[in-house]
User: Fold this.
Amino acid sequence: MDDKLMLMIPGPTPVPEQVLLAMAKHPIGHRSGDFNKIMAEVTEGLKWLHQTQNDVLVLASSGTGAMEAGIINFLSPGDRVLVGNNGKFGERWGEVCEAYGLTVQAITAEWGKPLDPEQFRAALEADTNKEIRAVIITHSETSTGVLNDLEAINRHVKAHGQALMIVDAVTSLGAVNVPIDEWGLDVVASGSQKGYMLPPGLGFVSVSAKAWDAYKTAKLPRFYLDLGKYRKDAAKNSTPFTPPVNLFFGLQAALRIMKAEGLENIFARHQRQMQATRAAMRACDLPLFAPDEAASPAITAVMPQSVDAEQIRSAMRKRFDIALAGGQDHLKGKIFRVGHLGFVSDRDILTAIAALEATLQDLGHQTFTSGAGVAAAAKVLIG
Assistant:
């Protein structure tokens, strides 16, 4: 049946009908008073979502563009940075830093394991000359389903005093509690196609007063991604360059939906659906890739033993029109990933698990009892 695709991947994520309809409206002039009103509303909504009074700036970019902006606006060539690397995206931020001539010290962990905050503490305490200018962390590592302990790592950064805390919150913002002002996070980047319930195309960067002080002396090249330009225009409810106007219509609608649900309910829903998904995988005798204590509420990675991960993904897509994500780099073909962030309901979780059970049976995975996965998920969801 056509047009029944169900996205259960970490992005793009499903989009509410209200948001789709909002984006279907005729564009308006981005220098008009009507657009200024929308800009004012979404700016206020973004500050609410980010739990901050800092600037939250909107770019026409992916999450990678937001992170690149978050790095290059506050640093200078040769600056020393610590980069947490326990997955594809932590690895990427190290590559971005090296491309701009920064001196990178990687703090690593095996893919599927969380970063160790003590390694950051040791590196920061050893920096008696205060040469480390930034610590760059992926909060929710999308490639592995690991949630790193941002709060603990940030405490060590704050004790250092000099370094900026730069955070990739692309799959955690809108799914996990990220209290920017309470924790004193300096730069937090995210993207529209994740917890925001929008199509790809918008990047978001929250910037603290401490980061703006660093901006004054930062010397890395920037033009389109110069956040100072966005800050200046945002103060006038405008943008320095042409924005994707219809995505702003969608952002306005999505933020209204999120406000109606409330932050605590949003976080609780993601936690519940993560727990349901993980319980179902165990009941289906499918090993989980990330440990319980570091599991991301946005994405669950699974490493099947008796069935090929790509066979599972292919069969789910062909038979049930359900899209699951695959592994990246050396994990390609070894894991599959179930996205449960953004506009995902409890019904979606049960549907995906039921389809997965049927797929496993068809592929000859016989080490579980039929219906056990759905029952385990239902027990968590019903409470």
In short: The mean pLDDT is 97.
